[in-house]
Amino acid sequence: MSARLMPDLDSAEGLDALFADVAGAKTIALAVSGGADSLALMLLARRWTAGRADATGLIVYSVDH
Question: What number of helices (H) and strands (E) belong to the chain?
């Protein structure tokens, strides 16, 4: 089994690699809770969308589970 390397999340290229599966979307939606992993995902998604020339929209849903 090969290990996948984590992209450099401090670079635009790394964020592009992380969100490559949704890069063509006009808008993406995230469902987040109050946990640290959800907060990290939300902050990374915001950084990624803010740095894109094509301005992918971001909608965040807060889920209490």
Answer: 2, 2
- Distance between CA atoms of residues 31 and 65, nearest Å: 11
CA distances from 42 to 4, 28, 34 (A): 22, 11, 11
Q: What are phi and psi of 61, to 5 degrees?
A: -105, 130
Q: How far apart are CA 61 and CA 36, in angstroms?
A: 15
CB atoms within 10 A of CB 7: 15
Q: What is the pLDDT of residue 7?
A: 83
Distance CA 60, CA 32 (A): 7
Element at 27 (helix H, strand E): strand 27-32
This prediction's pTM? 0.80
